[in-house]
Amino acid sequence: MIEESVKGLVSIPSEIQPQVKIYNIKDFFKEAIAKKPLPQFYLKIPANDLFGSREEDVLLEHQNLLDNFQLSKYDTNIIFDDTDSQLYKIDLDNTNKDFTPTFIKLDGITKESLMKYILDPEKKDNRIKFLTRRFIDYIGKNDPIPHIEIEKYVTRVISDLTEEQIQDMLSYENTYAEKIKEKINVLAQQYTEKKFQEMLDTDQIFLKYDYNLPPHITPNNTSKDIVKSLYEKESNMNSFEEKVINEVANLPNILCWTKNIERRGFCINGFINHYPDFIIYTKSEKVVLLETKGDHLDAEQKIRLGSLWDSKCSNDYKYFMVYENRAVRDAYTLEAFMQIIKNL
User: Fold this and answer.
1) Which segments of the chain belong to CATH 3.40.1350?
2) In this predicted model, what pLDDT tens digit does every residue of 229-265 receive, in sequence order?
3) Is 120 left (phi over 0), alpha (psi -120 to 50) or beta?
4) What distance, in Å, lies between the first and last C-alpha atoms of the chain?
5) What pTM was computed for the model?
6) Does the pLDDT at position 95 exceed 90?
7) What is the fold, at CATH topology level, of the domain defined by 17-37+217-341?
8) Inter-residue contact 85 to 168 (CB < 8 Å)
């Protein structure tokens, strides 16, 4: 989900404003920033009118890419390892909007009775239904994948297990449930990325330049002052981020920069929602989205999405993934990036 409003405006209830530290865009940069709205992905959907012949542009959300995703038809190849030998009672908290399950450990008589019931040969026909319900309760609500698709998929997973594997599942229940959930998420991610690429290639998904940075920000914590910051104070950052933006800000061609706030700032909304670390403006009216990564971290999905966004934007908008020293395909080392941005 896109956390902030489409235009990037942040509203603060009047009753809590005195307790919130607000940092405004510096007056010197306002005019230049207003000229360069950021592009996000949109798609057309039928409008709600009498004749149903009109379409409207809507901001792309992840759930749009899962339309027609039939989970039950996908492979059930799951490696169950790294097990934790415990049985749990599943308490599904319906007060939580995500229906987050809570595991309560079972042991002693309760555990013995449950295993005896499930492994009873006379109850074999009901075993799959029982285990399916149990594991679905653990997985929880997974909008927008229909419940029936999840049920069919989990049924297939359990149906394919041998008697020995069923016993192992009951001993290592938590791990089995985690692995099933993880597999569903991987399949959904693969589907949405493929669907996004197909819709992008056929112009069903397109860019609109209409995201304006908010006039003020309210970061939980702020960083030390670095020259040319867009706001009066910027959000906190790690040591590598600080090193990179300090080098960038001291280049003569840089107008200003801002630290993009995770899940509250601008995101590239594609098959994932990617919040680049920095938004940088040059004096030649270029806009650079910069994501920094430590050499020990992987970020292939972000690189792929950022590259697609870059390829669809006008030449005034650029995306870069930067590692300190590590060579990664379609990404840059800090040294190589600095050679590029100083000429933008």
Assistant:
1) 17-37+217-341
2) 999 999 999 999 999 999 999 999 999 999 999 989 9
3) beta
4) 32
5) 0.83
6) no
7) Trna Endonuclease; Chain: A, domain 1 (3.40.1350)
8) no
